[in-house]
Amino acid sequence: MNINELLEKLQDKFLPEDLKGEFTLHGNCIIWEYNLEEDSEEIPTPNEDDDEFNYSFDVVTSEELLLEAYHEDLVLIQEFLDGLEEDFWSLSDPDIADCTISFKIF
Known about the structure:
Layout: H1 3-13, E1 22-26, E2 29-35, H2 62-83, E3 95-97, E4 100-105
Antiparallel strand pairs: 1-2, 2-4, 3-4
């Protein structure tokens, strides 16, 4: 199977809502990329009269959120690749830049 066929199989297997990141083809590798800014949720602003609003937040860094998304998708992708009858696909280490994390499948 070539890289184009693998990308097609990945896109057939995973709907956009199944994974946090997205696949793109770059040369002879597939890049999985997740952008935290494109997936951020708006946090509601508390009402001054709202006694039930809890002000104790656990501070989570953007790097922690990126790594969490990476690990969640990585498990699914590795399970899929393990189910293929070909063992020659490799994954690079993740690369974090600003609010984006990515890795390559080659």
